[in-house]
Amino acid sequence: MKLVLLGPPGAGKGTQANVLCKEYNVAHFSTGDLLREAIKNNSSVGMEAKVYMDKGELVPDEIVAKMITEKLKNSDTDSGFMLDGFPRTKKQAEILDQALAELNILLDMVLYFETNEETILKRLTGRRVCRGCGYNFHVTNIPPKQEGVCDFCGKELFQRDDDKETTIKRRIDVYNNQTKELIDYYQEKELLKKVSGDLDVDLLFADLKNIFAEAGLK
Ligand code: AMP
Q1: Which of 3, 59, 97, 217 could be disulfide-bonded to 212 (CB atoms 3.0-4.6 Å)?
Q2: What are 13-38's pLDDT values in tens digits?
Q3: For the chain, how many structural domains are there in total?
Q4: Residue 153 clears pLDDT 90, i.e. is over it
Q5: DSSP sequence for 35-50
Q6: Quick check: is 128 catalytic?
Q7: Which is catalytic among the residues 122, 160, 169, 193?
Q8: For a pocket test of ligand 1, which of 15, 57, 88 has the largest count of ligand atoms closer than 8 A to its C-beta?
Q9: Which residues fall within 8 angstroms of residue 3, CB to CB, at 6 or more apart?
């Protein structure tokens, strides 16, 4: 399966990508994760991106587009992938179309995670991320077995700097102003499939498995 996961921050894209990639053994390409990795490595791209990320703004299109197109070119994408958090602007969607065309790859589906602001705020303020493997937990919705420790790799869980309430509000505005138009973009291409980002992780996971089975995606 070759998918794009679209939706506001906190709609559950990363969480579903975590479980789906394990289940279907496909690659998970998250621009947010790649940027956080670049920051951790103190690279010049990371330092430039951090200024935007800390404010809840989008990192310039050229930076993220280069990151993701390189990933697509240099990875084995035959068994499939999920693009999580990319594209986020129409310009990025066009760059992606071009990169996919050059690689002879067709997208199967764009999953649009629909949700509301109340859910987003609750999810993001409670989100805790593993420093080691990047798995997403939540203090009440997806609590780790031991507080502050990852169930899978045993590393420490932390709260992302941009998961503080004022930055979250800015990220929602940015989504509404710059990313939401991609819903129409992919609807016109007849790739869009709406799912409920309000559902609990397990219920949405079950729904998605049915959707993939019906579409013949593996
Ligand atoms: P995420 O982990 O997807 O919530 O992304 C965290 C932050 O990384 C966003 O608020 C942006 O600042 C930046 N970012 C991630 N993906 C993109 C993208 N496709 N375009 C621009 N900025 C991005």
Answers
A1: 217
A2: 999 999 999 999 999 999 999 999 99
A3: 1
A4: yes
A5: HHHHHHTT-HHHHHHH
A6: no
A7: 160
A8: 88
A9: 80, 81, 82, 83, 107, 108, 109, 110, 111
| Residue in 6, 15, 47, 64 to alter for ligand 1 test, most ligand atoms within 8 A of Cβ | 64
Say whether the peptide bond before residue 144 is cis (omega within 30 degrees of 0): no
Residue 79, pLDDT above cutoff 90? no
- Domain assignment present for 125: no
Find the residues whose C-beta lies inside 6 A of ligand 1.
9, 31-32, 35, 52-53, 56-59, 64, 85-86, 88, 92, 162, 171
Residue 76: the pLDDT is: 86
Q: Structure pTM?
A: 0.92
Q: Is residue 139 part of a domain?
A: no
Nearest atom of ligand 1 to the alpha carbon of 13: 3
Please tell me the distance from the alpha carbon of residue 167 to that of residue 55, in angstroms, as a whole number. Answer: 6
Q: pLDDT (tens digit, 9 = 90+) per residue, 193-212?
A: 999 999 999 999 999 999 99
List the CATH number of the domain containing 7: 3.40.50.300
Q: How far apart are CA 180 and CA 8, in angstroms?
A: 8
In a domain, 198, yes or no: yes
The residue whose two tokens read 């002879």 is 104
SS3 (DSSP) at 195? strand
